[in-house]
Write a structure and sequence with these properties.
The protein is of the alpha+beta class. The protein contains five helices and eight strands; from the N terminus they run βββαβαααββββα.
């Protein structure tokens, strides 16, 4: 029995064929761990767990990577509210996530990288995008992706740029060249704790979650 998946680029159901015979690399965007997981998270985890189990049962050598976002506005806010370090909060929530997923039988991924372990790689990717004219540093210190400068942006979602609406998830910032642009490096604020700030040649700050999975 073959595995067929919906290809969001071609908008069609296609038979799965690995890039390398007998091997599968699978990457899944994981949790932002500022709180306990909920049922919606479990649904996502179980969906990919089924795929991994099917692939392995079918004889594929599967490398399953699921990241952890361990630096983000909500994480910083929650750590400050509880008067604990960001690392203490994220360690606690990762342990709780593992316990909950283990209780329902969801397998651990092959690799579970933390975003904070790859900040230098994210900065390097931002540099490449800037060098291609696809990113710029705003007056407030943030480095943003210039959406309209990328030909074909939106082809995976099936939406044209004009159909996209800015400000539905986050407030539109005046420092952006275009309301649709999104932040890849967030400049540190004086009020934020020191463990929320990472050094870079763009100034102290932290990665925006858009760049994490890409890096």
């Amino acid at each position: 029995m073959s595995l067929r998946l919906h290809n969001t680029l071609t908008r069609s159901l296609e038979e799965f064929v690995p890039l390398r015979a007998g091997k599968v690399g699978m990457y899944v965007c994981g949790m932002t761990i500022y709180d306990l997981c909920h049922m919606g998270h479990l649904r996502m985890m179980m969906a990919f767990d089924v795929i991994v189990r099917w692939l392995r049962a079918s004889g594929y050598d599967v490398t399953y990577v699921r990241n952890i976002t361990d630096i983000e506005d909500k994480i910083i806010k929650r750590a400050v509210e509880r008067n604990i370090t960001i690392r203490a909060l994220t360690d606690e929530m990762i342990a709780a996530m593992h316990a909950d997923l283990g209780a329902v039988g969801v397998l651990r991924p092959t690799h579970e990288p933390r975003a904070t372990e790859y900040v230098s790689q994210m900065v390097g990717l931002i540099d490449k995008l800037r060098d291609k004219g696809l990113a710029y540093q705003a007056g407030n210190g943030d480095v943003n992706f210039a959406v309209r400068k990328l030909p074909g942006y939106g082809k995976l979602s099936g939406k044209s740029i004009d159909e996209l609406r800015a400000g539905e998830r986050v407030a539109v910032l005046e420092d952006k060249q275009d309301p649709l642009d999104f932040v890849m490096w967030k400049s540190a604020k004086p009020s934020e704790p020191d463990d929320a700030k990472y050094p870079s040649h763009y100034g102290a700050g932290r990665p925006g979650w858009h760049i994490e999975c890409s890096a």
